[in-house]
Amino acid sequence: xxxxxxxxxxxxxxxxxxxxxxxxxxxxxxxxxxxxxxxxxxxxxxxxxxxxxxxxxxxxxxxxxxxxxxxxxxxxxxxxxxxxxxxxxxxxxxxxxxxxxxxxxxxxxxxxxxxxxxxxxxxxxxxxxxxxxxxxxxxxxxxxxxxxxxxxxxxxxxxxxxxxxxxxxxxxxxxxxxxxxxxxxxxxxxxxxxxxxxxxxxxxxxxxxxxxxxxxxxxxxxxxxxxxxxxxxxxxxxxxxxxxxxxxxxxxxxxxxxxxxxxxxxxxxxxxxxxxxxxxxxxxxxxxxxxxxxxxxxxxxxxxxxxxxxxxxxxxxxxxxxxxxxxxxxxxxxxxxxxxxxxxxxxxxxxxxxxxxxxxx
Amino acid sequence: xxxxxxxxxxxxxxxxxxxxxxxxxxxxxxxxxxxxxxxxxxxxxxxxxxxxxxxxxxxxxxxxxxxxxxxxxxxxxxxxxxxxxxxxxxxxxxxxxxxxxxxxxxxxxxxxxxxxxxxxxxxxxxxxxxxxxxxxxxxxxxxxxxxxxxxxxxxxxxxxxxxxxxxxxxxxxxxxxxxxxxxxxxxxxxxxxxxxxxxxxxxxxxxxxxxxxxxxxxxxxxxxxxxxxxxxxxxxxxxxxxxxxxxxxxxxxxxxxxxxxxxxxxxxxxxxxxxxxxxxxxxxxxxxxxxxxxxxxxxxxxxxxxxxxxxxxxxxxxxxxxxxxxxxxxxxxxxxxxxxxxxxxxxxxxxxxxxxxxxxx
Lengths: 361, 361
Ligand SMILES: O=C(O)CCC(=O)C(=O)O
Ligand SMILES: O=C(O)CCC(=O)C(=O)O
What we know:
2 copies of one chain form a homodimer.
Chain A: H1 10-21, E1 27-29, H2 35-44, E2 48-50, H3 58-62, H4 65-71, E3 76-82, E4 89-94, E5 101-107, E6 109-114, H5 115-128, E7 142-144, E8 150-152, H6 165-168, H7 176-182, E9 188-194, E10 199-203, E11 207-215, E12 217-223, E13 233-248, E14 256-265, E15 273-276, E16 297-301, E17 306-309, E18 314-320, E19 327-335, H8 342-360
Helix pairs in contact in A: 2-7
The site of one 2-oxoglutaric acid has 10 residues of chain A, from strand 11, strand 18 and strand 19.
Organism (chains A, B): Parathielavia appendiculata
Pfam family, one (chains A, B): Cupin_8
InterPro entries (chains A, B): Cupin_8 (IPR041667), JmjC_dom (IPR003347), RmlC-like_jellyroll (IPR014710)
């Protein structure tokens, strides 16, 4: 039988069978698909990239740093601030009470900043460290900003049609082949502006996602929905960074007060967040016995590239900057179709995985 | 969370979640879909029926019994012969050695018959019993044909382009929207000729199926692939009917020899056949603890109706005859796409189901 390996463990077989039947190399198109061609990928829940599909967009052609400054001179924007580029990420938290360390789900400190301030900060931080470095994980719950806090404009609330409205005219209002195929308009169109210090941790969304690179590069690590048992989904307490003035010893002026970011557990009603804690870039840590079976799909987007990221695929995203020192992307999110077998089946894989991993503990 | 019920048993949740998110009433179109519209149904693995979609086909308009006799006057055709209309069906078998009865997978006796003989047999049998009756299950392994054996032309080897070639010009050589959407030609185009005594037992295929009613009616009971745990898949020994002359007592001329059908186990290499033994029309028999959760989708096809039967859906099919006493259908089968998550996920559901049901025994 095709793709029916005969191991003992159905979760293992699931990943192995999937790998046998599917390539882990992304399909590359050299022009945009028709609505029907797109729908075939949606039906297979399989990513593709259109190289240079958005190369002629006004955004891709014109969004230099100076031009953005001009267009958004008087705007304020919402910024996610973290010590290590770890907005919405599993993060070690050390309890001030008993000194024990656990993983929590760290949300960024969010604040409005003048766009000019935000952009200059990103760029000068990027240029200070010539070779982009992998953000280190925050290992304490209090971090001073002496080493430089990390900022990322990553609101996902349809920001390009609200906060960044002056830029919206520079991208298509819809992606025709996606709109026609999915028979709906995008639920959100979002702009992402960051530098190489931010990483989006592995997670999945209930959206069909058309992700378009404008400046710099994004590096996606993609895992199909069948890999649930590999990502070690764990219930994490939610915590949030907040700014705090704190004592520092040493430093340039021999100690004193400095602004820092403190990770604070959310109290009371704060429900635990089920979240993947396996990181495909550190495969030996927080792994399950299924993690080694996964064959991640790796794709780097260059300016003008468009990625179809199907609903429910796990994705981890890191970034490199343009020569100007920024990384800019726009994505179109469409509500997924919850009818058909895929959504209930993915819930099913999730509960079988969680039972299997609990049993093993 | 949408469609996430919180029972203990993931297999139960799977069926319940599916039912919450999907209608068990088939979608009805009143004209043929475009390739894109069709692809949306393929993506959702969801059936639909186009009422009267094939009403203008030459086959639908012209295939009277007399016209078929004229076209196929000199042809021989392959006929499946069974005592109870149970070709390829779970059937009780009583061992001649020890008298024990077990379910086996009964294949029909197959033989070539002049088309004229076959058709006359079907029709006169149908007209003898005015009100179509539900075929009774064969309960012994030897059945005389005194009550009338059941014949069904049901070869599924692309017969309309081979055995029945003279008829092929009366149907479209392809279904354009299916060919364009699936980007392939049909793997097989099959003709089905039977009467109300034949039933096709619940099973599933790895094909996308466009099923078109020409004369009479077909009654489909459809279950989605997520219902695997409900159908009680069981490994059955294969057996085949063969003709045999046997002694009969009584009867019109006070006993003598008569032709009968004997069910014979296949020897040796005959591998066991995993087959659904639950029958949604007799829900209390051979049920699993999941069977009662299933909400079958019922659809009757009238002449000219076209059904999209998605790959991997369980289907049981019974039939009613036209006033002329026959039931005729044509179907187009397209190889399914094994890429994407659906095929490995359905294999996964199957192995979890089989483990769960074994545990319960
Ligand atoms: O660009 C990023 O940092 C993350 C993108 C993402 O997670 C998404 O589009 O869903
Ligand atoms: O028409 C029938 O009797 C059965 C049809 C069927 O099983 C199929 O088309 O796969």
